[in-house]
Structures are given as structure tokens and as C-alpha cells.
């Protein structure tokens, strides 16, 4: 069974949290509520999230301050944040949201279909990244197991490499399409920068995978790093 992704919903108004849950329930993922910035930061200490939907106007620690704390933590800095606000204060207010680390900024009342589509993109990228990490860990275990039926192990490892390469290629294609769409349609510099960051991470994964190909002499180096 594929583990569901967790989506963090942060809003001080229960009715807004209920509305978000109603909109996002169709994604069939795990929705986690937080009624304040402090509560959101506590949730982020123990759980991994695919995306955070963060209300801007909250008493005490507002959305901007909460986002700043999230981005300062090594564990959470790469989690995408979508800001939700009931008031449009103009370009300066929007810029402040992107400067705080948001990948998107949506004014209420928002289109449920648009919000669900935006969130689903980040959930899919998160799930693909988790699958790649699991496959990479399994591959390392296979490569480190050596000494038992060398030919069989070599064939099994080659098949695993091919499968992992195919999975990575699919994610690379999706990331490339997302980047092209943002470049063509979006004027949001933060969203474009986030897509570029994702592509850089995928490039690193591709280099690591290529280094594991037979004949590269990198199998021993992979073992020595673990």
C-alpha cells in the first residue's frame, strides 16, 4: 500500500479549516489541522508534509512569521507553502508573501478546482520523491549485499537500476513540463525559482544514479559512504 502524503492546513478559523478539508478531501491524502502558527510549527517537528496551506491573517504569530520559522529549519525549509488570504493588499503584500518563502499566493474566496489542482501538483512531486528515495535505499542494500550469486545479483541490480532510471525519467519529464508552464504563464518569481530548485535536485539524483551504472567503478564509493 502506498503511504498517503500529509497536507498541513493552518488557519485560526475552524470554518475555514472545514472548508479546506471539504475541497481537498477528493485528493485522498492525510489532512492535518493547525489553528495557529505555533501549532503548525509543533506539527512540523514530528511529521513530514507534502505542502502547507497557510493563512496570512492570524492572531499572535501570523502567516509571514510562521513561514519565516519554517524556512529557517533545515528539516522543513523545502516544504512548499501556499499562502491563503482574505484580503488583497496589493503587489507589496503579495511580494512579502513570496519573500517569506511561499510558492503561491491565493486570495479568498478562491476557486476550489484551482486550489485542488495546485495542491495535487505538490502532492504528486512529493510522492515521486519518496518513491525515488525508497528505490535508492533498496538499490544500495542490493549493491552492498555482494558475494552471494554474483551473476544473479548483477542481473537483479541491473534490473533495479533500469526501473529506478525509468521512474526518475518520468519525474524529470513532469518537472520539465511544470517549469515550462510556469515560465510561459506565471510572473511569480518565487514559483519559478521553486521549480528550478526541484530540477536541480532531480539533476543530482540523476548524477547519483548514473554513477551506479556498471563499469563506473562507483559501487564501492556508494558503500563507503554508508
UniProtKB/TrEMBL annotation:
Gene3D superfamilies from the UniProt entry: 3.40.50.2300
4-aspartylphosphate: residues carrying this PTM: 55
Keywords, comma-separated and alphabetical: Coiled coil, Phosphoprotein
Coiled-coil spans in chain: 154-188
SUPFAM superfamilies given in the database record: CheY-like (SSF52172)
Pfam families (alphabetical): Response_reg
Domain Response regulatory as annotated: residue spans: 6-123
Keyword field contains DNA repair: no
PANTHER family reported in the protein's UniProt record: RESPONSE REGULATORY DOMAIN-CONTAINING PROTEIN, STRESS RESPONSE REGULATOR PROTEIN 1
The protein, known as: Response regulator
Native source organism of the sequence: Streptomyces dubilierae
Lineage: Bacteria, Bacillati, Actinomycetota, Actinomycetes, Kitasatosporales
Amino acid at each position: 500500500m502506498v503511504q498517503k502524503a500529509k497536507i498541513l492546513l493552518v488557519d485560526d478559523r475552524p470554518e475555514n479549516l472545514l472548508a479546506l478539508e471539504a475541497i481537498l478531501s477528493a485528493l485522498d491524502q492525510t489532512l492535518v489541522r493547525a489553528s495557529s502558527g505555533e501549532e503548525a510549527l509543533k506539527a512540523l517537528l514530528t511529521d513530514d508534509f507534502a505542502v502547507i496551506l497557510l493563512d496570512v491573517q492570524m492572531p499572535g504569530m501570523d502567516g509571514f512569521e510562521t513561514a519565516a520559522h519554517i524556512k529557517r529549519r533545515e528539516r522543513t525549509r523545502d516544504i512548499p507553502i501556499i499562502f491563503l488570504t482574505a484580503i488583497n493588499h496589493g503587489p507589496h503584500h503579495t511580494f512579502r508573501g513570496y519573500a517569506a518563502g511561499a510558492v503561491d499566493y491565493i486570495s479568498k474566496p478562491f476557486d476550489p478546482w484551482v486550489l485542488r489542482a495546485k495542491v495535487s501538483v505538490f502532492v504528486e512531486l512529493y510522492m515521486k520523491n519518496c518513491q525515488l528515495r525508497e528505490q535508492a535505499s533498496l538499490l544500495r542494500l542490493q549493491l552492498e549485499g555482494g558475494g552471494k550469486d554474483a551473476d544473479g545479483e548483477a542481473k537483479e541490480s541491473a534490473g533495479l537500476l533500469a526501473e529506478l532510471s525509468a521512474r526518475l525519467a518520468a519525474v524529470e519529464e513532469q518537472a520539465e513540463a511544470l517549469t515550462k508552464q510556469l515560465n510561459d504563464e506565471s510572473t511569480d518569481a518565487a514559483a519559478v525559482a521553486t521549480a528550478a530548485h526541484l530540477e536541480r535536485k532531480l539533476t543530482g539524483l540523476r548524477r547519483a544514479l548514473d554513477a551506479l551504472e556498471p563499469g563506473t567503478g562507483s559501487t564501492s564509493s556508494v558503500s563507503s559512504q554508508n
